Amino acid sequence: MNDARIAEERIDRLADFARELARAGDDERAREAVRLARRIAERHRCGLPRRFDRFTCDACDSYLLPGRTARVRLQEGSHVVIRCDCGATERYPYRG
Ligand SMILES: [Zn+2]
To answer: Which of 19, 93, 13, 89 is nearest to 57 (CA)?
Structure first.
């Protein structure tokens, strides 16, 4: 198993861990898990997987859990707007 693969697996585990922590209400530790995953991704220049990146706030590194740490709404049927509790918003095409 090469380094990049190991990094991906660590990031995957951190994503699961961050989600569990956010669900449990431990926002600060969830944020630490997000930051650690970002650092690993940077070191390996692989970026966060999209499915994880979309659940993190670029402004405060919070794990975005709809209904708890984030609000989600559809915009004109074609975009999803996620607003973090810190006030930052991210906008994505509905598909992809
Ligand atoms: Zn935020």
So the answer is: 89
Contact 48, 41 (CB under 8 A): yes
Beta bridge partners of 70: 66, 84
Tell how far the Cα of 14 is from the centroid of ligand 1, in angstroms: 18
Calculate how far, in angstroms, residue 63's C-alpha sits from the geometric centre of ligand 1.
8
pLDDT digits (tens, 9 = 90+) for 17-49: 999 999 999 999 999 999 999 999 999 888 898
What residue segments make up the domains of the chain, in order of their start? 3-93
Higher pLDDT, 95 or 70: 70
In the chain, count H helices and then E strands: 3, 3
